[in-house]
Amino acid sequence: MKVLFALVMCLGAFTYSAQAQQGEFKFGAGAHFFFDGASFGVQGKGNYGINDEWAGQASFSYFFEDFTFWTLDLDAHYGGLELGDVEGFALKPFAGLQIANVSVAGFGNTEIGINLGLNATLPLDGGLSVYIEPKLVISGASGLALAGGVYF
Fold it and tell me: Under a CB-based contact definition with an 8 Å cutoff, are residues 50 and 80 in contact?
């Protein structure tokens, strides 16, 4: 319950800061699969376009396991790549930090790692966009992860 409350508070803070700043803000929701241990979870994210080339993104993922497992990712996206003929399609390499927490019966471990990945975004009608985000997490529990969902 504490994790859910923290998620709602973080997403609310991102929404408030997006209204107070100039630039493009997108909220996203989707699924997250971590291949190391085959963990599946849900994800919420906020993406703030700083300028035409750079964006900052924060993501929170909660994984459905017999124990508590969540991650908080803080990434910087570089948007200087344009590929293909689809208008609005973007491939953005990113790097950042991941804070991962695993706890069982109140005893846990928190690790900080590095994210390296690629965000692919395809615009849809009505202001929605689909995102797919494969990444490599480098930490004590290194592995590959794949996230996907919709930006609102």
Answer: no
Tokens read off for 128 = 């929605």
DSSP summary character for residue 106 = T
Other residues' Cβ atoms within 10 Å of the Cβ of residue 129: 18
Look at residues 151, 150, 4, 139 and name the one whose alpha carbon lies nearest to residue 73.
139
Distance between CA atoms of residues 18 and 24, nearest Å: 8
Burial of 81 (0-12, 13-18, 19+ CB in 10 A): exposed
13-17, 28-32, 75-79, 139-143: segment of lowest average pLDDT: 13-17
Average pLDDT score over residue span 36-44: 90
- The owner of tokens 């994984």 is 63
pLDDT tens digits, 88-147: 788 889 999 999 998 998 788 899 999 999 999 998 988 899 999 999 999 876 799 999
